[in-house]
Amino acid sequence: MQMNDSEMRLAFRNKLREMLLDVALMDDIDRIYVPLAKLISEGLNMASKTQVIGINGAQGSGKTTFSNLMKIVLEMGFNLRVVVLSIDDIYLTRASREKLAATVHPLLLTRGVPGTHDIPLGINTLDSLCNASANTVTAIPRFDKAVDDRVPETLWERFVGRPDVILFDGWVVGAVEQPDEDLVDPINELEAQEDPDGSWRRYVNEQLKTVYKPLFDRLDLLVMLQISSFDKVYEWRSLQEHKLMMQAQGRKNSRIMNNGELVRFISHYERITRYILSEMPSRADMLFRVNDDHRIVI
Predict the structure, then answer these.
(1) pTM, two decimal places
(2) Residue 283 and residue 65: Cα distance in Å, rounded?
């Protein structure tokens, strides 16, 4: 049952201000967030177990914003305990990716594609949360993109007990492998020049087919934030990088990308992102379109 409505709306507004977002997004509470929260709450009542909600969206589509605002509505509007976990937070350490780059393929140094996540860590974290007793303490992994490495475990957040809902977001969450024949031709300059024999893209695809499947099988609901085209990724990801630059000012070892580096970085994701945009809308449990002004439309 919905409760604490006024407190929820105040917290929602404050979060918008904290994230420097347009206060017009307040309109989305009743249009987007409360209906979805009600659906999740009803599913929780029927299943009597923690609900793992996958939130898929291309880079810059607003997954983090969506998850943070959804958490407020679920907690303050529906009195549920919520954990937000991003697939970005279970990236392999830089040292582990350097080893992969040396032993499997140089392109695996760059975080993001399947094969660069610590899938056992993700599965263990979800399972610990879902199976927790009242006093179980689960460490929630965190990754620092500004330095391109995992946050030391001593600094991870701790969650006590079992949450009602886990919001698990990421650009590749819920993705499936491509047909092998689709991998033959390179899709961009990065693949043509740095993966001419296709070994990197075949490795990445095999990871989706095998290693990532048990993780994604734990999703109870798949929500997709659908952007209009891959062309929006660079524009919106650039905004994210500028935010990282502001956050990293004065910090040692920061790894903020310039425009050329960003183009190359995004090229790693182009193949899978385009495939997700073509095949996921027909099977997502809930589909929200994100227009070119970054607003969710139904």
Answers:
(1) 0.90
(2) 23
Distance CA 136, CA 131 (A): 9
Q: How many domains does the chain have?
A: 1
Residue 275 domain boundaries: 5-81+167-297
Residue 283 is classified by DSSP as: T
What gap in Å lies between CA 187 and CA 254, rounded to an integer?
Answer: 30
What SS3 class is residue 294? coil
Q: Which whole number is the average pLDDT over 24-46?
A: 90
Instruction: Show the beta-strand stretches assigned E in the chain.
Output: 51-57, 82-86, 137-140, 143-144, 149-150, 157-160, 165-170, 221-227, 286-290, 296-297
Assess if residue 33 is contained within a domain. Answer: yes
Please say if the pLDDT value at position 227 is more than 70.
yes
Name the one residue in this structure whose structure tokens are 């582990």.
96
What would the two tokens of residue 211 be?
A: 């290693």
Summarised one tens digit per residue, pLDDT across range 161-202 is: 999 999 999 999 999 999 999 999 999 999 999 999 999 999
